[in-house]
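Class prep. Protein, please:
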Amino acid sequence: MKNDLRAVCVRVDERTDVVVTLSNSTSITFPVTRIDSFRRRREPREALRAANDALRDVRIEDDGFTIAWPQLDVDFDVLEMLPVYAGFAQTAKPKPKAARVAK
């Protein structure tokens, strides 16, 4: 069963921050640059730089569990990634490999 917490409103403001309102009336704001695709992929990065319509075309999908930029092919899972983007959590990091001693 999915959590009842979901996005009910989303927009990108004039400073290019993502503003998400959740079903419990909490609003979370974070820079769009925290989303990896806007730093690593050319088209989203250019949309961010130009602050164009594609950047502002952000939508809620999957009954509030996904936030998406359809024109840029960017999306994220609200429950999984929102705490990371808001600075409350980190993504899992791979465990470092143990050092080997040459014989």
Q: What stands out?
A: The helical segments are 36-40, 42-50, 53-56, 78-85.
